[in-house]
Amino acid sequence: MNKNKNYTITGYGICVAKGGNRADFWELLCRNETAFSDYHLFGPDHPPQTVAKINNQDIQHGLTKRQLKKLDRFTILGIAATRQVLQTSQFPLENEELRSQCGILLGNNTGGWGFVEPQMAPLYASGMETLSPYVATAWFPTAVQGEVSILFGLGGHSKTYSAENISVGFAFEQALELLQEGVLSSCLVGGSEAPITQLVYNACMSSGLLSETGKYEPYTSQAQGSLLGEGAALFMLESKAQAKQRGAIIGATIEGIGKGANFVESMRNSLAQAQKVAKDVDYIILSARGTMPEDQEEYAAIAQVFADHPQILMSAPKTKYGNLLGASMAIDTVTACLALEKQMVPPTYASKSTILPPPVGQHVVDVPKSAPLNNILINGQDNYGQCLTLLISN
Amino acid sequence: MRMNSTERTVVVTGMSTINPLGQDLTEFWTACKKGTSGVKKIEEFYIPDEMSQMAGIVEHLDLSSLNLSPEQLENYDRSLLFALKSSHDALQHSDLKLDSRLNLTNSRWGVFVANAISQISNMEKSFCQQSAKGIYPLAPIRKNSGRRPNSYFFNTTNAEIVNYFNLGCEQVTVVTGCTGGLDAIGHALQAIRKGKVDIAITGSTEAPITPLVVASFSKIGATSTRNYDPGTASRPFDVDRDGFVLAEGCGILILESLEHAQKRGAKIYAVISGIGSVNNCYHMTDIPEPGESIAKASLEAIKDAKIEPEQIDFINAHGSSTPQNDVAESNAFHRMFGPKARDIPVTSIKSQLGHTLSSATSIEVISAVLSLNDNIIPPTINLCSQDSRCELDVVANKARTSPVNCVLKTSSGFSGIHSSLIIERWVA
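^ Those are the sequences you sent over. The predicted structure of the assembly is below.
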């Protein structure tokens, strides 16, 4: 018996560029355009960077000016997404017992450099007295978890994980285990990231992660890295029994979480945990790291695992909103939930002629494709090659 | 002790530490039992008088056993160097030869080493290089060919440990601030219990003595300003305590399933049997004085370990030397144990080392394991006049010989997290 089946997503929230809620996000995924734009991150004297940055007015955070003064953008985004989750899941915040048994498990990989960066030059040039007293609590990755727990009174076992693009996969795994053990009765899971800062951008560029051309073209022969985006996505995860009891809507289930040193291992482990076979899977959300070797390795792994399933569909929705690092898999999970709801595969943003065809299956490009969808795989890979695959089911 | 047929027992088979008291287990434990302060004045950069000017500092770091190239020694963050050296020594201590993985064909490894502030030294260094120490605005830099470690990613240190030892295994970084080390050990405990991995390199590492970190804690009044006498500044449970003392260091433990350890004939130093963690939902930095959340996390750990509170015979406290923490912890212990709280020996080795953020907890777990093995509780130094609100049996200023069988390790961190761990004597 796969115990994961007993747990469901009862609500979710999202905030990315041009996708400040799930309706706008779905529209972005299906439109033939992206959320990227040129942004003068280093000022007008330097060439712009191509990033997917959220307009401030699209972030429905509900915070006061006083609160905003203390927080980095990744926390503000996390709070905005949390408010949507609490609303869509109809989580009873007035129920003290449920709140005390609700945990927060998040992914983040770069913390709050946007808050600290403007203070670095005064710190070094003028002295240590110049530093804001809020740096200590705004900068570190656990800030979202802490602020959300305090703001909404969620007292259960809570942790934040860093594993680059697969951080949220670990958060989901822990959430399911803690729910199954009875340590938690519900859990807010997801990720938040705001990496569009000068230092983080330079670090990502220098380390080889980003594309210098201003184009994010995974699965093409021109692929040479990703483009940064920012945002947050969170979910309320709880038992179906509890959801039924409190009249919440039962949504998708995370039936399998598989890890491995490569995608063959992670996809097979995910299928095994979900007690499904390759033919049960309808659609794969690709990791889209955006380099030829990594993209081709993923294609080859799919060909190996899905050799007997030539109908398998795949796409890279990240091409619309960018690489969100520690929040990446959370955004992909929203995509999966929406795809299951709409019975539609959102496409990769690219010219059809440039996408290299996969050895097995069909890569959905440009135009969304209607299809019966019951089981979706989400592939993720970190910057050290570790792979994690989620299996999301209706 | 938690022993059932479906979940595996998790044991400590190796450990090592680098901290202001020593660069290996023996050096550390010898100094710790004596009650030594590792706190000194920070000389590397100017700090205004109103800020904390001292730290627990690791001096004369010896990395010769790692065989690193000059380029690696130059480029690796100090926290990573600590972690590599301690992991190397902990593996040796566990008698797991680095090539033995090849022989243990069914062994699955995990690396779960926490940090609170990642590779902050390298981050600040890169800012200074790009801006000439804040004089020039930052400008975009070009892409390098090939992948390079990214100091701004919080998973880099953990992943580089995996790379260095060529483990190719599961790895994730728990980034929960000052409870991080305990949370990482808890993560490893769960992974081994459930059979997901057989052996884990776990613990935490931190090198936070930088202008940004020193200033950020000073600005909120969290750190001591007893600058005139650094060696006495960290004074948990003392009525004159005025904040914690920042420190650097690393604590690494090798955890294994009991079955795995016994199969290879490993020496077992302790059992890690329970973890509990909650949020206080109160404040990002303040701790509620009644100590309810600390007690709740500790009782969850006790429940997880399937023991009774009465079995706890030593508390290795968070004891950060802040006015709030020590009272809240004392209240938590009274809430949990009632009048018996006055009789359970309590110590805080932060009095000797200072507070190494996430790695404080893993160093303290190592200290607790050594207490279990030697029946010696290291002292809380600088305890001249115990705060009357902390009615506890604090092991003051001199180590105590006392039977230790079951240790409660507590911790608290920013974000309102409280995590506790149960460590028990191994009885064959």
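Residues 253-393 of chain A form a domain with the Peroxisomal Thiolase; Chain A, domain 1 fold (CATH 3.40.47.10). The first strand of chain A starts at residue 7 and ends at 16.

Shout if you want it in another format.
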